[in-house]
Design goal:
It is a single chain. With about 280 residues, this protein is of the alpha+beta class. The protein folds into two domains: about 130 residues, Rossmann fold (3-Layer(aba) Sandwich); about 140 residues, Tumour Suppressor Smad4 (Sandwich). The strands form three sheets. A six-stranded antiparallel sheet has the order 7-6-17-14-9-10. Strands 13-12-11-8-15-16 form a six-stranded antiparallel sheet, with no helix packed on it. β3, α3 and β4 form a beta-alpha-beta unit. The longest helix has 13 residues. The model has no long low-confidence stretch (mean pLDDT about 90).
């Protein structure tokens, strides 16, 4: 018996419809299904029809959406170690394992337990104000400190293990995981890092000097960023989905989390094939 969670993107009708089709296809299978309350309401299933299981008890969480849905789901189950299988119902789908037409075959593999797991690192951030922690966050892609739309540049004094690295005068700063190296960090000029590696990638956003470059540090490093700005429009964003307002002289401490994201892999690992497809890199002849 497989305990399967199904989590469609709530704002995409195609994802909701796909969730309905998946549930119907599994009615006579040895599967217990978990749905969150929002999905239950959108699909129209009564709660008694669903398995009485907790999110923490799932064998696999099937995420129907794009990369954003997968990032949100990864944070949701990060403390439970639940493996995630992503189905791309979005546009880019850099993190998802398969496209919509492959769902039926994927379900058969799940039932047969014919898959492997791939682990990716999370990072944790603490916001420290006047010597006290005021907020804590976890991300799979990145933590980003940015100025507001009309605010002036900010000074971001960056330290690694208490050693001063550089003062970035910039529009912001990204601390990314290898998984997030192909997201905002890449757009800001950061390196592409194979996601199975473990490291922290520090990349400035629009630095006001030609000498500013990305820095890659070991996974055990403690990255500390001190924020200095003469305005109040500074924000910490988490995976581009959560936000927290920062104040002048706040410190953001970022470390590798003690948990990992677990992705279900059905067809073997080929990061560079995904990279070539998603970035539309021409093949060599």
């Amino acid at each position: 018996m497989i305990k399967l969670g199904i989590l469609p993107h709530p704002g995409k009708p195609t994802a909701i419809q796909l969730a309905k089709e998946v549930i119907e296809s599994l009615r006579d299978k040895p599967v217990k299904i978990w749905l969150d309350q929002e999905t239950v309401q959108r699909i129209g299933y009564a709660q008694p029809e669903l398995a009485d299981i907790d999110l923490a008890d799932l064998d696999v969480l099937l995420v129907l959406g794009g990369d954003g849905a997968l990032l949100s789901a990864a944070r949701l189950v990060s403390d439970y170690g639940v493996p995630i299988l992503g189905v791309n119902v979005g546009h880019l789908g850099f993190l998802t394992e398969l496209e919509t037409p492959g769902v039926n075959g994927a379900l058969e593999q799940l039932l047969a337990k014919s898959y492997t797991l791939e682990e990716r690192m999370f990072i944790d951030a603490q916001v420290i104000r006047d010597g006290k922690e005021v907020a804590r966050f976890r991300s799979l892609n990145d933590m980003v400190i940015t100025r507001g739309t009309f605010a002036r540049i900010i000074r971001l004094s960056t330290f690694v293990d208490d050693q001063h690295v550089v003062d970035y005068f910039a529009d912001g700063l990204i601390v990314a995981t290898p998984t997030g190296s192909t997201a905002y960090s890449l757009s800001a000029g950061g390196p592409i890092v194979e996601p199975l590696l473990a490291c922290l990638i520090i990349t400035p956003i629009c630095p006001h000097t030609l000498a500013a470059r990305s820095v890659v540090v070991r996974p055990e490093a403690i990255v500390l960023i001190e924020v200095e700005a003469n305005h109040k429009d500074v924000m910490l964003t988490i995976d581009g989905q959560q936000g927290f307002s920062l104040q002048c002289f706040d410190k953001v401490r970022i470390v590798r989390a003690d948990v990992t994201a677990k992705f279900v892999k059905l067809h073997g690992y080929d990061f560079f094939a995904v990279l070539q497809n998603r970035l539309k890199t021409p093949q060599a002849r």
